[in-house]
Amino acid sequence: MGLVQWLKGTFLCHLIICYGFLVSGLLVNLLQICTLPLWPINKQLARRINCKLGYSITSQSVALLEWWSGTEVTFYTDPENCQLYGKENAIVVLNHNFEIDFLCGWTFCDRFGVLGASKCLAKKELSYLPVIGWMWYFLEMVFIKRKWEEDERSFVQSLQNLRDYPKKFWFLLHCEGTRFTEEKHRISMEVAEKKGLPKLKHHLLPRTKGFWVAVQNLRGTVAAVYCCTLNFRNNETPTLLGVINGKKYHPDLYIRRIPLESVPEDEAECSVWLHKLYQEKDQFQEDYSQTGCFPGPVITPPRGPWALINWLGWTCLLLYPLCLLLVQLVNYGSILTILATVAFCSAVSVGVRWMIGQTEIKRSSSYGVPLNN
């Protein structure tokens, strides 16, 4: 292990990363709150501003993955389709097998310039959390309570609100509803057997209701479905804590562009279509486990500098007053003040570690909660 790699795993580096993310996130949240008076006056301008502010937070996670840990996502896709990425609205269907699959999805968005305007389906509780949750609220994320009777109206309204969105956006959707585990897979395949559906080896059964509602309400706004299948070389088991420790992973992402016109409008036919799509995804995963690669050519979209510049900018901006404070503390602070500062930093670290722990697969939600199949 080299010196740089050792430093990346130290408590001090982790504390600086967490401090920068949390404080910059809260400052961005404050700026987002300041846009509230603008919404009734010029809604589209408020949306554009919030896209920029949102990018300032989410791109820090992309910089952490790409520049700090050195993880480089390899993209497999048709070069002709690649010309359309970032130039059209799309529904992005992702598999949900890994702790950092959301980071790989954000990297895909960032490479094609739609990270600030990317949307996702999230639990309602997250909208109350500072930094990420508040940012998502101002970015008009689609929040649900996982109770379809209560969610249907707000879900449809949130999707309808995106029809006049001023920037190109991608709606990221995990149709399985929760991360893959062996126990959830067993339960899911029991459901498949009862319904007479083909069993999947690498995925849970997709929840078709939410996908169909999303497609129906975004027709005429969204041009295509991007079917994305993610895996990691050498049977790697990536974690967010590993990324923060500077560990390099090797993700491969296979992207297929499917015109939205090919998705059936009838709910029952759409359900059959989505199940077939997941059977195809499952076969791609099985082939990957045998060959170590996905079909099709590899493309390498340029990695822009803005995520890194944003991250370094925030770090430098926030470290300066922190260093001044520490100098004052060491020179003039009492023992009690120094101990209180150490205790506060430790509490912040514990809090961030708790947040990281929520991304662990074992902490994901249980299988079988609606949105309905």
Automatic annotation (TrEMBL):
Entry's Gene Ontology molecular function annotations: 1-acylglycerol-3-phosphate O-acyltransferase activity
Topological type in the membrane: Multi-pass membrane protein
Matches recorded under InterPro entries: Acyltransf_C (IPR032098), Plipid/glycerol_acylTrfase (IPR002123)
Annotated CDD domains: LPLAT_LCLAT1-like
GO biological process, one term: phospholipid biosynthetic process
Top-rank taxon: Eukaryota
GO CC terms, sorted: endoplasmic reticulum membrane; mitochondrial outer membrane
Reaction(s) the record says it catalyses: (4Z,7Z,10Z,13Z,16Z,19Z)-docosahexaenoyl-CoA + 1-hexadecanoyl-sn-glycero-3-phosphate = 1-hexadecanoyl-2-(4Z,7Z,10Z,13Z,16Z,19Z-docosahexaenoyl)-sn-glycero-3-phosphate + CoA; 1-octadecanoyl-sn-glycero-3-phosphate + (4Z,7Z,10Z,13Z,16Z,19Z)-docosahexaenoyl-CoA = 1-octadecanoyl-2-(4Z,7Z,10Z,13Z,16Z,19Z-docosahexaenoyl)-sn-glycero-3-phosphate + CoA; (4Z,7Z,10Z,13Z,16Z,19Z)-docosahexaenoyl-CoA + 1-(9Z-octadecenoyl)-sn-glycero-3-phosphate = 1-(9Z-octadecenoyl)-2-(4Z,7Z,10Z,13Z,16Z,19Z-docosahexaenoyl)-sn-glycero-3-phosphate + CoA; 1-octadecanoyl-sn-glycero-3-phosphate + (9Z,12Z)-octadecadienoyl-CoA = 1-octadecanoyl-2-(9Z,12Z-octadecadienoyl)-sn-glycero-3-phosphate + CoA
Listed transmembrane segments: 12-39, 308-329, 335-356
EC number: 2.3.1.51
Keyword Lipid biosynthesis (UniProt): yes
Entry keywords, A to Z: Acyltransferase, Endoplasmic reticulum, Lipid biosynthesis, Lipid metabolism, Membrane, Phospholipid biosynthesis, Phospholipid metabolism, Transferase, Transmembrane, Transmembrane helix
Job of this protein: Converts 1-acyl-sn-glycerol-3-phosphate (lysophosphatidic acid or LPA) into 1,2-diacyl-sn-glycerol-3-phosphate (phosphatidic acid or PA) by incorporating an acyl moiety at the sn-2 position of the glycerol backbone. Exhibits high acyl-CoA specificity for polyunsaturated fatty acyl-CoA, especially docosahexaenoyl-CoA (22:6-CoA, DHA-CoA).
The family this protein is said to belong to: Belongs to the 1-acyl-sn-glycerol-3-phosphate acyltransferase family.
UniProt protein name: 1-acyl-sn-glycerol-3-phosphate acyltransferase delta
Organism: Coregonus suidteri
